[in-house]
Amino acid sequence: MIVGMNHFTITAEDEQKTLDFYTGLLGLKIGHRPDLGFPGAWLYGTGPQAVLHMYFGRPVPAQRTGVIDHMAFTAQGLREVKARFDASGVKYDLRQQAGAGTWQLFCHDPNGAKVELDFDPSEQP
């Protein structure tokens, strides 16, 4: 029945800091978003599907993550991404997954959402 993940939605406390994080640091692109009657943005990777939706101007829920622990994205360019994180001062944890060898970079967005970036084992930090 389910054929894939469609998107995640986050409530952004600070619109500009959140957009800077996801577009400037992670490289997502702002794209088409229908008029939904409230402010927000849809962010895209390299494909035609928006992978992250954002709400602006809404109160952040008291229970930040609920039962969702994190969102994960497949990524490329580990060395360049790591350099951007180092230059930005955003804290992260980089580890190589036992067995599969996938490089995993974990961080938190400006709203406290945990984000995982997964890189091919052949990439070098």
TrEMBL record:
Which SUPFAM superfamilies does the annotation name? Glyoxalase/Bleomycin resistance protein/Dihydroxybiphenyl dioxygenase
PROSITE patterns, per this entry? VOC (PS51819)
Q: Which Pfam families match?
A: Glyoxalase
What InterPro entries would the database entry show? Glyas_Bleomycin-R_OHBP_Dase (IPR029068), Glyas_Fos-R_dOase_dom (IPR004360), VOC_core (IPR037523)
Q: Which domain of life is it from?
A: Bacteria
Q: Which residues form the VOC domain?
A: 4-120
Question: Know the name of this protein?
Answer: VOC family protein
